[in-house]
Amino acid sequence: VLLFRFSALTYNGHRIHYDRPYATQVEGYPDLVVHGPLLALLALELPRVYAPDRTVRAFDYRLVRPAFAPSRIVSMGSGVRTGGSTVEVTVAAEGAAPSLTAQIGLG
After folding, report:
1. How far apart are CA 58 and CA 71, in angstroms?
2. First and final CA of the chain: distance in angstroms?
3. Share of the chain above pLDDT 70, in %
4. Fewer Cβ neighbours under 10 Å: the N or C end of the chain?
């Protein structure tokens, strides 16, 4: 449901995000593909939750591999709780290599 709603919200009509038979049988993916921008928003959840009093000043990210449903997506970071000005973040399907790497600059 989240992938479908995110597709609608971002006007992304590509069926790989919401049509499982199309994604697997036509495009050859193992399952639905999680949107890269959705992974980026999940990366930004870490400072929102763990440093709500800090302002995000910069956000640089790189999509390095796809993530597929129905995997649990996990965001991991370092530096948020220690008060650092730059947070290193990865977002990945649980048990898989990162799908997104990012640096978040905090004010």
Report:
1. 28
2. 34
3. 94
4. N
